[in-house]
Amino acid sequence: MIPESLDGNNNPSFVLRSINDLAFEDRPKPVLQSPHDVLLEIGPFVVKEPMVLGHEASGTVIEIGKKVTSLKKGDRVAMEPGVSCRRCSACKRGTYNLCKEMAFAATPPYDGTLARFYALPEDLCYKLPEHVSLQEGAMLEPLSVAVHMVRQAKVRHGDSVVIFGAGPIGLLCCAVARAYGPWKVIAVDIQKERLAFAREFAASATFEYSGGTAEESAARLIEDNGLGEGADVAIDASGAASSIRTAIHVLRMGGSFVQGGMPHADVPFPMVEACTKELTVRGSFRYGPKDYDTALGMVATGAVDVKRLITKTVAFEEAEKAFYEVKEGKVIKLLIAGPSQGT
Ligand SMILES: [Zn+2]
């Protein structure tokens, strides 16, 4: 249970004990493990499907380690929730998102950020300019996922870009891709309402997937949008097998495909098409160097308006109900206020 009133040290936390067993627990207040760490009082959390307990958050610095130089008490920051080992070959190659020793918030055995306090190294805290809210700061996590996906696709000025899946990540991919000055950004989904929102939010056109083979869907998508020999770039943010196959067929010769959505299992892949078109096929996993900086820049300059994706903010005590609303697809993204905040 959440204590009636918060003294200096309660750390009410929302935890997933086992599947469908969500509970509030009072966890110990974290102590700084390194002189480079800072202690944060958490602001709002973002909830999304699949149910990950609080890995998207922002907060206010309340204590700093002895060697912290870039932050001070009272700074408001967005939190990058994964701490890499910094020593392995993946880290040294500059791909720390691929670190096998990554301690990622809300991935067992690590606690999520859905608590009152959280300790994090200073270089994973991104100071928010005054005009950027904590709510927007909490949205930098999904935005960074989208930034990484669009970077992996190497979108260039004048490209035609097709994005499969108009959930939060797909929508953010549309917005990030727009910032690269493409010719067209086409959002694909099976839900009309999502496509209507995508068009209003960032897509220049939309395509409603309505069955048929991947070849047929791709041909119709190309025809409807005047893509000629095919799209330059296709990004999958859905993980759906039909989307992945359609994406391969929608690309032009020498086009580029990025898989960002996580399929539930391996999917049959049109490898002959990928081979004969000489496609560039890349995966995308979380975010790496400079992705958070880019995401913050896009929010700070107004290039991406993440506020529009937040359907509503609820109180910490309503976290459980909120998770189920997101799970049922009733809202796109929803923020949970920190234990010490109102809504
Ligand atoms: Zn590493």
Automatic annotation (TrEMBL):
Its EC number is 1.1.1.9. It comes from the Eukaryota. GO terms for biological process: sorbitol catabolic process. Residues 17-336 form the Enoyl reductase (ER) domain. InterPro entries: ADH-like_C, ADH-like_N, ADH_Zn_CS, ER, GroES-like_sf, NAD(P)-bd_dom_sf, SDH-like. SUPFAM superfamilies: GroES-like, NAD(P)-binding Rossmann-fold domains. Belongs to the zinc-containing alcohol dehydrogenase family. Xylitol dehydrogenase which catalyzes the conversion of xylitol to D-xylulose. Xylose is a major component of hemicelluloses such as xylan. Most fungi utilize D-xylose via three enzymatic reactions, xylose reductase (XR), xylitol dehydrogenase (XDH), and xylulokinase, to form xylulose 5-phosphate, which enters pentose phosphate pathway. This is D-xylulose reductase. It comes from Aureobasidium subglaciale (strain EXF-2481).
